[in-house]
Amino acid sequence: MPKIIKNIDKIIHHLRLALGKMEVARNAYKKHKQTRGLDMLTIVSALHGIPINHAILAEIYISSSNKEIDKSIKLLSKLEKNLLKNNQALHARYRKDLLELMNLMQLARNTSSIEEKYEIISRTISELSEFRNALEKYNI
To answer: Is 48 helix (H, G, I), strand (E, B) or coil?
Structure first.
């Protein structure tokens, strides 16, 4: 499998990890809204010395999701540089798409709404998959 396709697969992998973490954050936040007080997580964590609730747990997963998005952004910028160096014709053709994907990832990282972040990451994954399929035609 060509290196560029492997790199796109890595980016998609990191974004899927981010999506999974956002799902956990969304569920934790829903649980926090339902309980609004003491629940088993708070009690058990307090017994271990560090009381946390579902809202804190959601923030932890959002932060972790942002780290996965950052990894994806770095990989995409590296992919863009490699495409420029090794295949300028394809780079010229897909530069706008690459920048749009980069902007979507940055928007996902900077968005505070869990639902919006989840939708943006999902959209980015589907667009990256389309981009991957388009590049597969060129066998690079």
So the answer is: coil
